[in-house]
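Sample intake sheet
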Amino acid sequence: MIDVTVQNFEAEVIAASMHTPVLVDFWAPWCGPCKTLGPVLEQLEAEYAGRFKLVKIDSDQEQQLAAAFGIRSIPTCILLKGGQPVDGFMGALPAGQVRQFLDKHVPSEGALVAEAEVDEAEALLESGDTAAALAKLADALAQDPANDDARYDYARLLIATGAFDEAAATLAEPLAREPRPLRFDALQRWLAAMQFVQADERGDWPLAQFDALIAQNKRDFDTRFAKAQALMAEGQWTASMDELLEIILRDRKWNDEAARKTYVAILELLTPPPQRAGAAAAGQSAGGIALTGKAAAQEDPQAALLSSYRRKLSMALN
């Protein structure tokens, strides 16, 4: 438990909530219910062993902070994650009800272990140890099957290493959801392209053989799509999107919009993952305060490329 003032609020609450949920207890020394709730919160903080952080703000001494959160009665508890308030409660709730409140937002022990495994897997990948990274991601998913980040990273690495059957099994659960998550649909379409070049004789064709057929019939969408899949499997992402765009321009509805859906999938695969918790955005402090000067972020070439291809798709569809 930490006492927070306006001087240390940014560090102890905003910045801390970027990687660990922070429960802010607004109280006052004269408040009887506050004295009842306080020991309950401290007991739960110890019980949860670092899965959330408890801070206390004296609403009489820190009226600026109390006003910023719109505190009208005490005790009031506000939970912050990622620098933002996400939930709260008022009054001296018993331990069981506070535990139910926390369990809606605080990661389980398995989730924390899984997150650590994912971090280790990223480090192993950077060092070139793909097999160990796969093992770490498999462990992470076993610890926390609901961890979509671990599932996505694991399936993506399985596809990249040619473990197609394992990748398909890993993708089965998210692909059965309604609506289907876009990033898992993107992996499925990449997997389909990899399986196509493995199973279809056209997977061994040189590009000139595709182009010869397309020159004879520019509406030979089956050949165009096969070429796009072959390019996708080889990691020639922009060339694949260029071929898919030719289909979209001529018949966007062809084959249940397969060209458009695959184009969108490639955009998703090329889009960098969301910033991990705990890292401030470029040009911002942890609290989201804009920074200027030499440290200001430069335009990302990858972002510019993606923006260009999104515009191409938008123009083709309009």
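Comment: The beta strands are 2-3, 22-27, 53-58, 76-81, 84-90. The chain has 14 helices and five strands.
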